[in-house]
Amino acid sequence: MDHVASSAPDARSVPVCYRHPDRETGVRCTRCERPICPECMVSASVGFQCPECVHGGGPAPSGGAGGGTARPMAAARPRTIAGGTMAADPRLLTKILIGINLAAFLVQLAVGESFTQRFELVGRAYTPLLPGIQGIAEGQYFRLLTAMFLHGGYVHILFNMLSLWWIGGPLEAALGRARYLTLYFVSGLAGSALTYLIAAPNQPSLGASGALFGLFGATGVLMRRLNYDLRPLVALLVVNLIITFTPGFGIAWEAHVGGLVAGVVAGYAMVHAPRRNRALVQYGTCALVLVVVAVLTLVRTGQLT
């Protein structure tokens, strides 16, 4: 009891699910305000409810002695474990990202190779379909971003979009929209920067894999924080890394590694940041990762020019 009393602020910083006491969570039922883990969440019109409230057995919000004048506790909007605001559609940004990737792929099919060569990641190369020397080293830094939304074929985009739906959706619900989107772009840019730094300057690269591996890494950090079994995720990640480094697949392993490292770093800040100054720690860490991205990009540009 002495230990619990002495560390009360830390113990209360992240409550545990009332149905699974071994699982920490930052989400509460919008009706009864009891903390619930992702397994217990049932989507409601706004936020999530616990199974008991959904089936009518949960406690209703108290109205006070007067019988109708007190405000319900639902006025305090439920928060995710990372401090984000719960949304009515917890997968909205994941759907939008998938839509953007699909739209870009349709443009690739309609316009042809000239569109892909204009926006894929390439350090410095002469492209026959475009005039002159093209690449990031020529000041086309937008390629670090646009390459994240291009794909090399039907199998490529199908695999990546399925992965984004399976991994991104639950992670968006757990982090909140702003933090999830920040994590996605920070991981993708980190993957692009490492590819630019290491790969041959005339070797093109494209795909959402860097951002996806960042989501992989952040999901692992989140599952560890909630004491979930990491073995299925680790097995899936190992399989992906084996494929990544297998000769003949033509995969830009640099994007995968860069995205994974950035995702682990940013994800750790998202779910482990202290309640006090939480947003500052979270977004400050992401900003530091972007500083590293900028430094790597400038170093490589200096080498190539």
UniProtKB/TrEMBL annotation:
Q: Where does the UniProt entry say this protein principally localizes?
A: membrane
Q: Does the keyword Metal-binding apply?
A: no
UniProt-annotated location(s): Membrane
- Carries keyword Hydrolase? yes
Q: Which GO terms describe its molecular function?
A: serine-type endopeptidase activity
Q: Which GO terms describe its biological process?
A: proteolysis
| Keywords from the named record | Hydrolase, Membrane, Protease, Transmembrane, Transmembrane helix
Q: Please report which protein family the annotation says this sequence is part of.
A: Belongs to the peptidase S54 family.
Mind telling me what this protein is named? Rhomboid family intramembrane serine protease
Specify the species: Streptomyces misionensis
Question: Which lineage ranks, top first, belong to the organism behind this chain?
Answer: Bacteria, Bacillati, Actinomycetota, Actinomycetes, Kitasatosporales
